[in-house]
Amino acid sequence: MSFAVFGIGSLFLGIIVVPLITIIIRDEERRLRWSRAVVGAAMQGFVLFMNGVGVLRYEITGVENIDTSRNYLILANHPSLIDVVFLLSIFPMAECVIKAPLKKNFFTRRLMNGVDYISNEDPIAWLQKCVERLEDGRSLILFPEGTRSGPGEPLYFKAGAGSVAVRAGTECLPVLISCEPTTLTKAESWYHVPDRRVFFSMQIQPPILASDVLTDFSDARQAGRSFNQYLHRYFTRKLINRSEAGRASALDTLG
């Protein structure tokens, strides 16, 4: 039912709402803001729907770390297909890097074109677009892994996140995501339903600036790699600590 609601909702937004906004609002920047605000509201509604029908429970913490007057490179690990739904519900105006097929998919193509998210089809072009939009004062959502991680697998960060952060000089806002039991992972089919209700957790961390971590920026490519390694260690450590704290809390409850 949730998949049906998402698909029908995407079609409705892409075929009726976004084109209507395009007709009514002539100014391109204002039209884009309205389109993204509508998408953000739809994502918030979808999260509430999933919670309401019992698909999942969720918790979002650390919102006090967000300064709405600033723009961020929002970095998150990627355990589940619905990670981006939650992120866009919190950061509706943010840019987003999407997989190229989403701009061709029957259910999502009109919507994706209407909100002008960045396609990852051309690696060089999307990297440059990310930097440009951050330099323009926009926020950007990016998954350093590039794709969903498998349950129990170690994180693997591609080079893009560190490179974008260094080149744009924008504060990074880490978001730790966990999903228990796992659902909609890369290793699970979309129709695989967990045996109990999913608990989805997002923890927004304090911002990180590459210049506070690195001392040598003479070689931008090497600086990007170094910062990417730092981010990998940061996420790995935080997620392990969080998992251990969760197990300890569960044992205390049982005890």
Overview of the structural elements:
The protein is an alpha/beta fold and 255 residues long. The protein has a single domain (2-254), classed as Glycerol-3-phosphate (1)-acyltransferase (3-Layer(aba) Sandwich), CATH 3.40.1130. 49% of the residues lie in helices and 14% in strands. The protein has helices spanning 2-24, 28-52, 83-90, 109-115, 123-135, 160-168, 210-213, 220-254, and strands spanning 56-61, 73-76, 95-98, 118-119, 140-142, 172-180, 198-204. The protein has a 7-stranded mixed sheet, with helices on both faces. The mean pLDDT is 89.
CATH architecture grouping: 3-Layer(aba) Sandwich
Question: How many strands, which pairing sense, and closed or not: the largest β-sheet?
Answer: 7 strands, mixed
Which CATH top level class fits?
Alpha Beta
Number of helices: 8
Q: What proportion of the residues is helical, as a percent range? A: 40-55%
How many beta-strand runs? 7
**CATH domain fold name:** Glycerol-3-phosphate (1)-acyltransferase
Structural class: alpha/beta
Tell me the fraction of residues in β-strands, as a range: 5-15%
* Whole-number tally of structural domains: 1
